[in-house]
Specification:
Blueprint: E1 5-6, H1 8-13, H2 16-25, H3 51-57, H4 60-66, E2 71-72, E3 86-90, E4 96-99, E5 111-113, E6 121-125, E7 143-147, E8 153-160, E9 163-168, E10 173-177
Antiparallel strand pairs: 1-2, 3-4, 3-10, 5-9, 6-7, 7-8, 8-9
């Protein structure tokens, strides 16, 4: 079976088309230091599970994205086309993170929001920026987004189509439709 994730090095090294995707929607990555379950992080998440517990509750793809920091391939999540009113929750702990009214429709390939519900996400720098990246015309270091409750990797904060947005892996979310 084909691996449905892509890593940062292969994305950046694949040329100008990849650079455009990375600038517009966030580059993919797998930095060891940014693992959601990193024992070196000196922050206690409300929801803490062992790797074995996470693997039991998540599919291999979900584990790779939420716990290892990978990024799903563009246009693979059905949530990017979801238009119903509702809330988007962390797949790892069910914390409500985003509301549908903040969803931004972009055709780049992931789920985009203008912002999260206050105090629901944490941000960090996604590893080291590639060598030589220093001026505004090149890819900048990415700002990574994690769930505040369980530390699961959600996506990145990026500039896309002249908007600053949360570019989120649909795999990291569940959708709860509003009742009528």
């Amino acid at each position: 079976m084909r691996n449905p994730t892509v890593n940062r090095r292969s994305l950046i090294s694949s040329g100008a088309a990849s650079a455009a995707v990375a600038i517009g929607a966030g580059s993919a990555f797998r930095p060891g230091q940014a693992r959601a379950s990193d024992p070196g992080i000196d922050f206690a998440f409300e929801v803490a599970r062992s790797d074995a517990e996470w693997r039991d509750m998540l599919s291999p793809e979900e584990f790779n994205i939420l716990r290892e920091g990978s990024t799903e391939l563009p246009k693979t999540s059905p949530l990017r086309n979801e238009t119903a009113a509702g809330t988007y929750c962390c797949r790892g702990c069910d914390l409500t993170l985003y509301e549908s009214v903040w969803k931004v429709p972009l055709e780049i390939g992931w789920v985009f929001f203008s912002h999260s519900i206050p105090r629901t996400v944490l941000t960090s720098i996604d590893g080291q920026p590639p060598a030589g990246m220093g001026d505004d015309s090149q890819i900048e270091a990415m700002i990574e987004v994690h769930c505040r409750r369980c530390g699961s990797h959600l996506g990145h904060i990026v500039h896309a189509e002249k908007k600053l947005v949360h570019c989120i892996n649909g795999t990291s979310l569940t959708f709860q439709r509003n009742s009528a």
